Amino acid sequence: MDVRTKSIMDGFPKAKLYHLYIEGIVETESARDDDVVLVTYSEDSNEDGGPHFQRFCFDIGGVRDVAQLHIDALYELDRYVSRLRKKDFE
Question: Model-level pTM?
Answer without folding.
Answer: 0.56
